[in-house]
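Q:
Got a chain?
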Amino acid sequence: MNINAIREQFPILHQEINGHPLVYLDSAASSQKPRSVIDAVNRYYELDNANVHRGVHTLGSRATDAYEGAREKVAKLLNAGAPEQIIFTRGTTTALNLVASSYARSNCGEGDEIVITPMEHHSNLIPWQQAAKVTGATLKYIPMQPDGTISLEDIEKTITPQTKVVSVTYVSNVLGLINPIKEITQIAHRNGAIMVVDGAQSTPHMKIDLQDLDVDFYAFSGHKMCGPTGIGALYGKKSLLNKMEPIEYGGEMIDFVDLYESTWKEIPYRFEGGTPIIAGAVGLGAAIDFLQEIGLDEIDRHERQLAAYAYEKLSSLDGITLYGPKQNRVGLVTFNLEDVHPHDVATVLDSKGIAIRAGHHCCQPLMRWLNVSATARASFYLYNTEDDIDRLADALLQTKEFFGHAIG
């Protein structure tokens, strides 16, 4: 990877923040966008703007081709099997809510179990809380080891023949660890449960093969992988999607409407009511082209090197606590600076042009498990360098010194 050439394609990176060159270390929240994605969205609005699937005119045909072409790109990216197994959504949150509201509420009841982990993002926790409340199912948690990982032994003990749904994040947005999704899926299937995966933090950073993983549902967001905000997708196995009822009703998702009864279109359209996120899908397709041209394996290798470098660099600083395992992590480090609140750390770093995330990261149960109220997080992507991490480490030393004098 030619990092300098890659960075040149991201206009936002070439600016100063508070008098310093921008160092963007918040890609786990939302990645920056390359020029090719920005241009693709602009081109759609400038030349092809029309609704899809309805008009017979040229603009409508071009918009439809671009929209469905993006669906095909997602299917190929994930090795999903068929494009109709890809449902466009507003993002991971909407996709997981669709599974919890449509599949789980129809297939779970009293005596059944829904299994997740304490490390889940709220978007993969609250929908299952609500599904359990509505259906009477029991919500269970796979326990975590002291380093934040989950063991196959505990997974085997937690998932039982009463389990109907298992839903786990592929990559923790706080701990940076990679969960053994293929092994969890095998255990879930042996017990008759379906496997749902939150792929928000995995899809941008590593090659995903859904046929190999054999998961039943997989959700991700476009804005974390160089695409626009407001677009994401849900993959589902055909046998499951065909049995699911839509949870939004209106135009586009119907086959026949009478005064008192209606029927639904085939998948995926029954789940895409109303005018879809056309420009977002076009931008997502352009983002996939961009990432595949570089290579997901190369991106994965680069980020793991950055994560290892950052872990070593920050762990050498006095007064820094790092969270999550040292090994098998993607490109982020979550930490706290002794006696300094994470929001204060982030504010000082911002004054030096360094953007990080501070707070509970939509993982309040995990924060309580870590016995903290909040943490700071630096997350990396394909456009970051070791120099960015060096600037982060230097700024943390200055932050520690500043607050040390203030406290003293």
The longest strand covers residues 163-169. Residues 37-293 form a domain with the Aspartate Aminotransferase; domain 2 fold (CATH 3.40.640.10). The chain has two domains: 37-293, 296-407.
